[in-house]
Design brief:
This protein is an alpha/beta fold. The longest helix has 18 residues. It is built from 18 helices and 18 strands. The chain folds into 3 domains: 185 residues, Periplasmic binding protein-like II (D-Maltodextrin-Binding Protein, domain 2, 3-Layer(aba) Sandwich), CATH 3.40.190.10; 119 residues, 3-Layer(aba) Sandwich (D-Maltodextrin-Binding Protein, domain 2), CATH 3.40.190.10; 48 residues, no CATH class.
Length: 401
C-alpha cells in the first residue's frame, strides 16, 4: 500500500485528507495517509520541499510562490486538487468594531469604506491599524488587500499588515497585538467566543468563489507516483461528499475537533461546515452564503485562471515580477489534467475548460463538462471587476493601488 505523509494546519479546510484517513476512504483506494500537524505555513511548506512529507495542505499563492522561487530558491510544486473555496473571515478587535459602529455583516462594500475611514483616521494619529494575515503569500493577504484597496484604503500606506500563524490569531487579538485579521475557521470564531473580536466580513463576500487551499506535491512526484496520487485524489473526492453532507456534519465536526487535528470546540467547526458564523458575543449564528465550499460545483477543480488571478495580485503588491512568463508559470502549478485523469469514470464532474473569466457569473449557470452536470454558482468580485486570463496583463495595468 502506497503511503502519503500529508502536512496540514489546524483549520476546518483541512477536512478532506482527515476524513479520507478517518473514514477509511484512502484504504479503499489502496493508499494510506499519515497526517502531520504543524503551526505555521512556512513549516508545512518546508516539510514538503525537504521531503519530510509527500503532500501538503497549502495556501494556493504559497504553492505558486514556492514554484517560482519568489521567496526562496525555486522548488517546483504541482497542485492537482483544491481542498476548498472560501472559508476565511475578516475580524476586527472590539475596540475597532466600536469605532466602526459595526452591527451586521451586510454590505461588504460599505463595511470596507467604514474600515478604510477608521484606518486613515488612526494613521493620522500616528497609529496605523495592525492587521494580521497568515502568510505573505496567502489568499488571505490578497483578498484583504483587494478589499481594502477597492474601499479607498492603501494597504501599504494606511495600515500595517503582519504575519501571524492561524493558531495564534485569537491570542494576538486577545493581547491587543493586532487590530484585526484575515484567517480561516475556527480561529475567527474562537476570538469572537472569547469576546475579543467581531467578524466584519467573510471573504466569500469579497469573491464569491475565492480560491483557497490546495493539495500540493513536489512536481517530480506527479510522474514518479502517478497512479498512487490519482488513487489519493479519488479518496479525497469521496471525502468531499461526506464533508458536504449535512447529515454527517456533527460527526465530522467532533472528529475534526480532536486534539490531533484542530483541537477546538466541535460547535465552532460545525458552524463553519454549515455556512454559519456568530459575528459577535452571544448573538445567534448568521448564515453566510457559500462561506466554505469543500466539494460541490467542482470546488476541488484546479482552474488555471484562479492561479493567474492570484499572480495578478502578487504583481500588484510588488510580490512578483510583471510579465506573461510569470502568469504562465503560475498557471502551470495547477494541474487540471491530473484531476481529470484521476476522477474519470467515477461520475465526478469534470469541467471541459481549464480556465474561465473569473467574476463573470452572477447567477447559476450551466457549463461544459466531460462528465456529470456542472452548474456554476455566482463567482462575482464584490466590486464587479472581471479577470480575463487572456488579458491578464491588461487587468494588472488597470488596477490602482
Amino acid at each position: 500500500m502506497s503511503r502519503f505523509r500529508i502536512g496540514f494546519l489546524p483549520l476546518v479546510d483541512a477536512a478532506l485528507p482527515i476524513i479520507a484517513h478517518e473514514y477509511g476512504l484512502a484504504d479503499k483506494q489502496g493508499v494510506s495517509i499519515e497526517l502531520h500537524r504543524d503551526t505555521s505555513w512556512a513549516t508545512v511548506r518546508d516539510r514538503l520541499i525537504y521531503g519530510q512529507t509527500d503532500a501538503a495542505h497549502l495556501p494556493a499563492p504559497l504553492a505558486i510562490a514556492t514554484s517560482l522561487g519568489l521567496d526562496r530558491p525555486a522548488v517546483p510544486l504541482a497542485a492537482p486538487f483544491m481542498l476548498g473555496l472560501n472559508g476565511n473571515a475578516i475580524a476586527v478587535s472590539t475596540r475597532i468594531a466600536a469605532m466602526m459602529h459595526l452591527d451586521s455583516i451586510g454590505d461588504v462594500a460599505a463595511t470596507g469604506r467604514v474600515l478604510a475611514g477608521v484606518a486613515q483616521a488612526e494613521a493620522e494619529k500616528g497609529r496605523k491599524l495592525r492587521l494580521a494575515v497568515v502568510h505573505r503569500y496567502s489568499s488571505h493577504n490578497y483578498m484583504l488587500r483587494y478589499w481594502l484597496a477597492a474601499s479607498g484604503c492603501a494597504p501599504d500606506r494606511d495600515v500595517e499588515i503582519v504575519v501571524v500563524p492561524p493558531p495564534f490569531i485569537a491570542d494576538a487579538l486577545a493581547m491587543g497585538e493586532i487590530d484585526g485579521s484575515c484567517v480561516g475557521e475556527p480561529w475567527n470564531s474562537l476570538a469572537v467566543m472569547r469576546g475579543d473580536a467581531v467578524i466584519a466580513a467573510a471573504t466569500s463576500q469579497i469573491w464569491n468563489r475565492g480560491v483557497e487551499k490546495l493539495l500540493a506535491f513536489r512536481a517530480p512526484a506527479i510522474d514518479e507516483r502517478r497512479s498512487a496520487i490519482e488513487a489519493l485524489l479519488r479518496a479525497l473526492h469521496e471525502a468531499g461528499k461526506i464533508a458536504s453532507d449535512p447529515a454527517c456534519a456533527a460527526e465530522v465536526a467532533e472528529m475534526l475537533g480532536r486534539p490531533e487535528y484542530i483541537g477546538q470546540p466541535a460547535e465552532l467547526i460545525a458552524r463553519a461546515l454549515g455556512n454559519l458564523l456568530i459575528l459577535r458575543g452571544a448573538e445567534a449564528p448568521t448564515p453566510i452564503e457559500d462561506f466554505l465550499m469543500l466539494h460541490r460545483e467542482a470546488a476541488n477543480f484546479p482552474w488555471k485562471s484562479q492561479a493567474m488571478w492570484l499572480y495578478s495580485q502578487m504583481i500588484r503588491w510588488n510580490h512578483a515580477p510583471a510579465g506573461q512568463r510569470g502568469f504562465d508559470e503560475a498557471a502551470a502549478v495547477f494541474r487540471p489534467d491530473i484531476y481529470r485523469s484521476a476522477l474519470a469514470g467515477i461520475g465526478a464532474i469534470l469541467p471541459g475548460a481549464s480556465a474561465k473569466v473569473e467574476g463573470a457569473i452572477s447567477s447559476p449557470l450551466g457549463a461544459g463538462s466531460h462528465s456529470g452536470r456542472l452548474i456554476m454558482g455566482p463567482d462575482r468580485f464584490f466590486d464587479g471587476q472581471l479577470f480575463d486570463p487572456d488579458r491578464a496583463q491588461d487587468y494588472v495595468a488597470s488596477q490602482a493601488e
